[in-house]
Amino acid sequence: MTDTAIPRFTGDASPYAGGDPYADHRTADFPFTHLVDLADRRLGAGVIAANDEFFAERENLLKPGPAVFDPEHFGHKGKIMDGWETRRRRGAAATEPHPTPDDHDWALVRLGAPGVIRGIVLDTAHFRGNYPQAISVEAVSLPGSPSPEDLLAPDVKWTVLVPRTAVGGHAANGFAVDAEQRFTHLRINQHPDGGIARLRVHGEVAPDPAWLDALGTFDLAALENGGQVEDASDRFYSPATNTIQPGRSRKMDDGWETRRRRDKGNDWIRYRLAAQSEIRAVEIDTAYLKGNSAGWASLSVRDGEDGDWAELLPRTRLQPDTNHRFVLDGPVRATHVRIDIFPDGGISRLRLHGSLTEGGADALAARHRELGG
Prior knowledge:
The protein is mainly beta. The protein has 3 helices and 21 strands. The model has no long low-confidence stretch (mean pLDDT 95).
């Protein structure tokens, strides 16, 4: 299930010596981190249970951004860490002081969007002498909104995504996953105890076709509905996937912003829709982009992997910090959409409202079955 070619960071990190705590943090360029984080809180992910969180709360695992370290921050239980940290396990008696090989701590994670997992990062940032000796990760797909008790029931069959593997302290431990299945929940295991700062679960959203069918008209580009960013001209200040996150942007870096162009070109994002669709209305939002919003934007569509691009929306003036709405003259069939902004700048959200075609719905249902849905 895992790719052994990915760099492994085993063993202790050096004790904190002052200065930038990330100066000696070990990491690598993992091949899957360009994919959406299925455990993003903005998509509705949550750490719904853990057997122990004595030193630091389980919810810290999914906090956005890197973990923060304050060497002077202590509480009545000890050093306060920005991650999930359990107490030290002990053996059964003085003659057996060490935990058994099977002893471990666990946390249950609900993915914000069910999907196919391509890679996992378990970052032990700032856990230098208190990280787990090893970790393992399991996954399951259960319908509805199962409780922790439902997930821990003896008849639930978990799939091992990452077998028990040694990890390093103060390091981003990455694991490629090769399991062509749709999952809804993860179980993160620490062997035997310790702390993990952040969890990231990169993959592809696999929406429930029955839910989309019930909605009828929905946002065809939204991450939670199976839309995705295929490519973008520039990701200098923020990722292009921000433009299809749930809800409206709440601050400038929650959108997509490019560097300032010094040539005569323009910037763009190319999207793949949930499936073949008919688009009926468009929203282009520049919320919180005021002196740096795109000046103009145009939209073009393509039906199929090799189809020709056709204009959906001509080059149109955009206003700063404004949601622009466009009702199309009639439904436009597409599988891909491209937004071009001129000359540079950014947008916060793109919404493409419409519904699946019969062919698109059939293809999505077939894919759902293939993934075990």
